[in-house]
Structures are given as C-alpha cells and as structure tokens.
C-alpha cells in the first residue's frame, strides 16, 4: 500500500498524578527527519521513541510531541532536602564565625533557598512505560491515516495516467497523416526553391525532415512510462523516489513531442500531457 508523507495522530492517558499526551504529525521531506519535543523528565526515552518511529516510517519530516499536565494537588507533596539544609546551616555557622553579629537565616529564607524545598519526584518508570504504550497506538493510527491519504493520491494519479493514455491513443493515428501532409507541403516548396529537376536532392531533404518530425519514438516511450507508472502504483510500497524519476522522464518526452510537432492537434496533446504530468508530480511530492 502506498503511504502519504502527510499524517497526524494523537492520544492521551490519565495517571493518578496527571495526564500524558503524545502527538505525531508529519509533512513531506526528501529524507526521514524526526524531531522531538519532550519534557525534561522523559528525555531518557527519546532513543527508544526514535527507533520505533524509524522502524515504521520511511520518509517525511516527523514531529513527535509529548506533554505532561500534572493534576492539581495530586502527587505534589513537598519535602525538605535535609542534606542541602545541613550544608546551608554549616555555611551560615562559618560566616557568623568570620563576621560576628551577622543575622541568622530565618526558616522562611531557608525554605526559599534553591534546592532546599522540592516536590516529590514523578514516577518516571510508570510515565515512560505509558509513553511507550501510547506510541504504539498512535503509530497505528498515524500509519493508517497516511495509508488512507496515500490511497487517494494513487487513485488521483491513476486517473491522470488514464487521461494521458487517451490523449496518446487519439494522437497516434494522426501521425502518418501529419507526416504525409507535411512532406507534400515541403516537397512543393522545395521544388519551387531548387527546381523540379533535383528530385534526388528533394528526396534526401524529405528523408531528413521526416526523421526530425517523426514522434513515434516519443509516443512509445510515453506509453511505456505510463505502463510502468500504473504497475508501480499497483504494487505499492515506498515509491516516492521512483515516481519522481518517472515524472521527470514523462515530462522530458512530452517536451520533445511538443518541440517536434508540426501539427496543431499534436501540439495541443503535448501541452495536455505536460499539464497532467505536472498535476501528478505535485502529488508525488507527498508520497513516501
């Protein structure tokens, strides 16, 4: 199945001490670029999250955002850092020994001292396990969303590939008539320019011009590229780079067809093909 590089999924989980939320979003990118926004307490599990994402995603700029909202009054009991308080008391005694008469630090001032008063630490192991479990569920939704969009993109491209085949089918029967009409017109002009006695030279010139305006090779290559495009879309998988290459080749052949055309209908068909190719190329930019 074809995957789009655009996707979004999110989930939340309630704990007794707060709510943990995880969000995944991605847009198109040449390579896989994973960025994280995590609380400092959960930075330790970033490698695990990165490995899990890289195993399921091939291309795209992916943002993984984890946030935590503590429940007011839950799990927020304060405690005194007795070791820090003892160090503060020892330092105060040394200062008072050097500077006699210095005022003592009050209890309120000691509690405001950085590191003396702290909240009970969050249960990190429980949060990390919950985050890993949520990632699996979010990844499943995320992958499914990218697959649904990828299926729509593939359908749009198949419709345009069929439209290209119809244009080619309409143009191909005209080519012998176009070449014959152009040869007749050019032969008449050459006879006027160099005289009717130079038939051999006229035949040589006509052979050269017939080669220059013959677009059978371009039509054949366009048809072959379209067949390969439809085969690739039907097989699925990671196709973005292959489809991008096919778009380049289709555009090159359509340009050559337009430059060699000596017929208004063929020129219009070439322009129609270029428009359809450009529409497909825009969709390819979003395919993994």
Element layout with pairings:
Layout: E1 7-15, E2 18-27, E3 32-37, H1 46-56, E4 60-70, E5 78-80, H2 82-98, H3 107-112, E6 117-119, H4 124-171, H5 174-194, H6 199-213, H7 216-235, H8 240-260, H9 264-284
Parallel strand pairs: 3-4
Antiparallel strand pairs: 1-2, 2-4, 5-6
Helix pairs in contact: 1-4, 4-7, 4-9, 5-6, 7-8, 8-9
Instruction: Please describe the biggest sheet, giving its number of strands, its sense, and whether it closes into a barrel.
Output: 4 strands, mixed
Radius of gyration: 36 Å
Residue runs with pLDDT of under 50 for 5 or more positions: none
What number of domains? 3
Average pLDDT reading: 83
Question: Separation of termini?
Answer: 11 Å
Strand count = 6
Strand sequence of the main sheet, in spatial order?
Answer: 1-2-4-3
Helix and strand composition category: alpha+beta
Query: Overall 3D geometry?
Result: elongated
List the total number of helices: 9
Estimate percent helicity: 55-70%
Strand content: 5-15%
Written as H for each helix and E for each strand, in order along the chain, the element string is: EEEHEEHHEHHHHHH
* Oligomeric state as shown: single chain
Structure in a nutshell:
The protein is of the alpha+beta class and 288 residues long. The chain has three domains: 7-73 and 124-146, Ribosomal Protein S5, domain 2; 78-119, no CATH class; 147-284, no CATH class.
Tell me about this structure.
- The chain is an alpha+beta fold.
- The chain has three domains: 7-73 and 124-146, Ribosomal Protein S5, domain 2, CATH 3.30.230; 78-119, no CATH class; 147-284, no CATH class.
- The chain has nine helices and six strands; from the N terminus they run βββαββααβαααααα.
- The strands form two sheets. A four-stranded mixed beta sheet has the order 1-2-4-3, covered by helices on one side. The chain has a two-stranded antiparallel sheet with strand order 5-6.
- The mean pLDDT is 83.
